[in-house]
TrEMBL record:
Protein's name according to its UniProt entry: Glycogen synthase
Catalyzed reactions: [(1->4)-alpha-D-glucosyl](n) + ADP-alpha-D-glucose = [(1->4)-alpha-D-glucosyl](n+1) + ADP + H(+)
Chain's role: Synthesizes alpha-1,4-glucan chains using ADP-glucose.
GO molecular function: alpha-1,4-glucan glucosyltransferase (ADP-glucose donor) activity; alpha-1,4-glucan glucosyltransferase (UDP-glucose donor) activity
Species, as recorded: Sandaracinus amylolyticus
Source organism phylogeny: Bacteria, Pseudomonadati, Myxococcota, Polyangia, Polyangiales
Domain Starch synthase catalytic: 9-246
GO biological process, one term: glycogen biosynthetic process
Gene name, Swiss-Prot/TrEMBL: glgA
Length: 488
């Protein structure tokens, strides 16, 4: 059987790459995975859109593809490709520059051409390979925005021998976002000649689903935790795509995301005022004092602080907080710090609680990278009551900083957080099984009881800080997968 040489050529295409453009975990993964693959000697190139925020970032870019034209349906676009490097590595990041589609204030929009914005990204990625005569062993697509790539390789680019050994991987970071559009947009994908390859029942029903198309044609499908890989094959969590995922279960893999210890380590983090380690946690208390000052709350030694850093959206389960936190704040010695923005109902929830308990809860609307790091370092506990969570990264950051996570046992949260067992001294956090107010109340109560047993709490922190969630371990699973789908 023929397999890849030790050096694999990987083209990773993503709508986000940190630090250039990021709204969540996708941006982090699209930077950390290529960096980890390159560290193992693989040849990796990343393709992403040249958004307005990238254009105005002040970075230097080199043009590597001159202006080219592409027709998508009745629309003609001119694009070029600019290159930079992923910070901390020599991995090239190749930005598709098409001002007509990407020069906007937001990464994602509700504009009527959203389907064309990301169809062009996929076309441009493969055309760049042709221009440079660079044959990837693997094209790694991410989420619906690039999910047309597997079909493109098997249809409109199949004539080109450059891609005859190229295989595709599609990673589903969140199955709730599918890129579902009216079937009338088919010509705008540039794939009208491959219309018979799209899901015909869906087309007849007036729908075209980018993510489904990728699921049907990718050589391998991954998602970002083993538990989530099982969950999305169920009616409850599959968001309508579970029958197709069950049909392709033999090529569906759950690979837990990792974190970058260069970015998230209490020993090396330059965004926190005081660094500390598993062997010496003394400075964590000083970071807690700095956090209270930053959030304009009184610092009270011996009172636990619960941190929240999150998008404030339905997925994250914050309606449970509305049912539990008022009683907790009224009856217990505890403080809460919240950083995030999103749906108005959740923003108002935390704003109201801050007004009602001005010495116990503080809410910073928006996002701040330095404050996110300070919360991870200075808080004693970290709350993630997500309704569902494909992987989650904040619970891993928290464990690295000795900040004990309290989570709903779903997806990657179930794979990373093990409930503390006082009898055995095992566990690294608190996970509640049932997504309801009583489940969250139980987990918070158990955490606060354990907090009062200082020796147990110290053991609990040590357990979490020993866990290794670095990409150094995770990247091996991708190596094995890339080799497994090699042509025979």
């Amino acid at each position: 059987m023929v397999i890849f040489s030790p050096r694999v050529r990987i083209l990773l295409v993503s709508s986000e790459v940190a630090p250039f453009a990021k709204t969540g975990g996708l941006g982090d993964v699209s930077a950390a995975l290529p960096r980890a693959l390159r560290a193992l000697g693989h040849e990796v190139r990343v393709v992403a859109p040249f958004y307005q925020r990238v254009r105005t970032s002040g970075r230097a870019f080199e043009r590597v593809l001159p202006p080219s034209e592409i027709t998508l349906g009745a629309h003609r676009y001119t694009f070029s490709v600019l290159a930079s490097e992923l910070p901390g590595s020599d991995v090239p990041v190749l930005f598709v520059d098409c001002p007509a589609l990407y020069d906007r204030a937001s990464i994602y929009t509700e504009d009527p051409d959203e389907h064309r914005r990301f169809a062009l990204l996929s076309w441009a990625a493969l055309k760049l390979c042709q221009y440079q005569q660079w044959a990837p062993d693997v094209v790694h697509a991410n989420d619906w925005q690039t999910a047309l790539l597997p079909l493109m390789l098997q249809t409109v680019f199949a004539w080109d021998r450059l891609f005859e050994r190229t295989r595709s991987v599609l990673t589903i970071h969140n199955i709730g976002h599918q890129g579902a559009f009216p079937a009338s947009i088919l010509p705008d994908t540039g794939l009208a000649d491959a219309a018979s390859s799209f899901h015909q029942d869906q087309l007849r029903g007036g729908r075209l689903n980018y993510l489904l198309t990728g699921i049907l044609y990718a050589n391998a499908i991954t998602t970002v935790s083993p538990t989530y890989a099982r969950e999305i094959t169920t009616v409850e969590h599959g968001v309508g795509l579970d029958p197709f995922l069950r049909a392709r279960r033999d090529v569906l893999f759950g690979i837990l995301n990792g974190i970058d210890p260069g970015e998230w380590s209490p020993e090396r983090d330059m965004r926190i005022p005081f660094r500390f380690s598993r062997d010496d946690l003394a400075n964590k208390e000083r970071d807690k004092e700095a956090l209270m000052s930053a959030m304009k709350l009184p610092y009270v030694r011996g009172v636990p602080v619960i941190g929240i850093v999150s998008r404030l959206v339905w997925q994250k389960g914050f309606e449970l907080c509305d049912a539990v936190l008022p009683t907790l704040l009224a009856r217990r010695d505890v403080q809460v710090v919240v950083l995030g923005s999103g749906e108005g109902r959740y923003e108002e929830l935390f704003a109201r609680l801050a007004r009602q308990h001005p010495r116990k809860l503080a809410f910073h609307r928006g996002f701040s990278e330095p404050l996110a790091h300070l919360i991870e370092a200075g808080a004693d506990m970290f709350l993630m009551p997500s309704r569902y969570e494909p992987c989650g990264l904040n619970q891993m950051y928290s464990l690295a900083y000795g900040t004990v996570p309290i989570v709903h046992a779903t997806g990657g949260l179930a794979d990373t957080v093990r409930t503390w067992d006082a009898r055995t001294g095992e566990g690294n956090g608190f996970a509640f099984e049932h997504f309801d107010a009583s489940g969250l109340a139980w987990a918070l109560g158990y955490a606060l009881e354990t907090w009062n047993r200082r020796e147990q709490w110290a053991r609990l922190q040590q357990n979490g800080m020993r866990d290794d969630f670095s990409w150094t371990r995770r990247v091996r699973a991708y190596e094995e997968l890339y080799r497994a789908i090699a042509p025979g």
